[in-house]
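Sequence in, structure out. Go.
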Amino acid sequence: MAAAQLRHVIRESCIAVDPDLRCAACGSMAVATTRAEHLEARRRPTWYCPECAERRRQQQREAERRRAEELMAERRAEEERLRALVRTSFPVAPLKPVDPEALSLSEGVYLLAVTRAAATEDYERIKPIADSPTLLSPRAEFDRIILERLSRNALLCVDPDSILDAFDFRNGAVHLRRPRRVAYKCAFAPTTEARGWLIDQLEAVFASGHWPEHWRSELPEVVSLIGIEQCIAYLELQQAERDLPFRAGTKTRAMFQRMLEHHSLAQAFNHIWVAARYAADHLVRSRISRSHAANSAVSFLNTRMERARHEHWNLKPFRPDPRCCRCTVVDVLNNTVLNLGDLAFTRSPL
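Output:
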C-alpha cells in the first residue's frame, strides 16, 4: 500500500483519545481525528464535548432570549408609565365648535397654515410639523410660536400618543420640549364635517373681504410680524453661508420692524444681502471674532436703512428666497388673506 493511501486510511479510520482531557460537563474523554483538533482542544481552558457544547449554546441562546424579553417588558412598562404622565399633563380638550369670525386674525392665519401644512384628511390630527415636506413658517422658532399660540387658545391640543422624546420628564413633571416633533389633535370642532366647515368658512371670509372689524385692526401687526420673520430667516441664511454664527434678538426685530414701515420685503432683502457681505468683509479686514462680525451686520443694516430712507435711494428689489419665503404661513397671508401673491413681496401691502 502506498504511503499516501496509508495516510488516507489512518485519517479516515483512526481517532485519538486523550484520557487527561475530559468534558467539563459529562466527563467523556476528548476525541480527535486530526492533530489540529487535538491541539485546539488542549488550548482551551475548559473543554466540552460536541453534544455538551451544543447544549450550552442552546442554553445561552435561551437565556439571551429571556433577557431580551425581560428588557422589552421593562421598556414597555416604563413607556406606559411615561405615557400616563403625558396623558395627565396634556389632557385632550373638549371639542367645541368655534365661530371663525370669533378668532383673531393671527389665529385664523395660523390655523389655516397649520391645517394646510400637516392636517390629516379628516382634519382630526396635525402630523408633526418637523416631518412635514413643506415649511410651516420661515423659521423653526416661529413654528414653535404658532403651535404654542394655537394650543394655548384651545384650537389644538397635544396628542398624548406622540413620541416620548418630544417631552421632558423631570421631578415627576412633564414639559413639552419639542413642539415641532409632536402631533396635535384639532380641538376647534367636534366632528369631521364641522372641522371641514370651519376651514372652508375661514377661506371664504378671507376671500370675500367682508372681515370683522377686529381683523382689519390686527392686519398691520400680522403682516409686520410675518415680514419680520422672513427678514430674520434671510439674514440668518446669509450669515450661515458666510460661516458667521448669528441669532436674532430684540434689537434685530425692532430694526426690521422699522425697516418694513418704509421698505418692501424685496428692498429689505437687498439691505440684508449687502449687510451680510459687509460682515464677511469686516471679519477679514479687522481680524475680529466671527460672532462680533455677525453682529456688526445689524448695526450696518440700521445705518444703511436710515440713509436709504433719507436720501431716497432707488433700491434694486430682490426676489423671494424659497428657503424662507416659500412656506405655508406666507402663502396663506399673501394669497388668501391679502390676495396679492408675489406682489406682497415687492411692495408694502398696507
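Check: The beta strands are 16-22, 29-32, 125-126, 156-158, 167-170, 173-176, 184-186. The longest strand covers residues 16-22.
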